[in-house]
Amino acid sequence: MIEELKTQAKVGVGLNALWKALTKELRFVVPKVLPNIVKDVELIEGDGGLGTLLIFNFFSGAAYQKEEIVELDESFHRIALQVLEGGHLNKGFSFYMTTFQLTAIAEQETLVDVRVSFETETYQESTMPSKTIKATLEFLKCLETNIMNGAP
């Protein structure tokens, strides 16, 4: 059975800048925003749109994680990335997906709804989804700072 954890964050940058960073610039932005965690993000297939395959190479722990953009809705500003290989799937999960939904609050403020959907191979209490939520909120803070400082 697929379970979900949800959270929200207000980000002090405009919707368009944040959307661009989370979609078209994602593979360039993530290593800049998380330089001690993500070594690089390789584009395996696609152009950043639906069906794009990315490999996130990490410095420690899980050596890599292959993800696919399984949802990309420009009109609703929603993107979902599903883990296909490595990373969380090596830690007892059979399904792991993170969805971002962006909503403009003001000209320079965006509400980000984050949903982590997951299924474990065998029942187990896991803190991984809550750690993903916490790490995603930290990522959004760092991304906000990066955009505010004029970086793409």
Automatic annotation (TrEMBL):
An example Gene Ontology biological process: defense response
MF (Gene Ontology): abscisic acid binding; protein phosphatase inhibitor activity; signaling receptor activity
GO annotation, cellular component aspect: cytoplasm; nucleus
Residue ranges constituting the Bet v I/Major latex protein domain according to the UniProt record: 13-148
Name of a matching Pfam family: Bet_v_1
Positions in coiled-coil regions: none
PANTHER family, A to Z: OS08G0374000 PROTEIN-RELATED (PTHR31213), PHYTOHORMONE-BINDING PROTEIN (PTHR31213:SF64)
Family statement: Belongs to the BetVI family.
Protein name: Bet v I/Major latex protein domain-containing protein
Organism: Quercus rubra
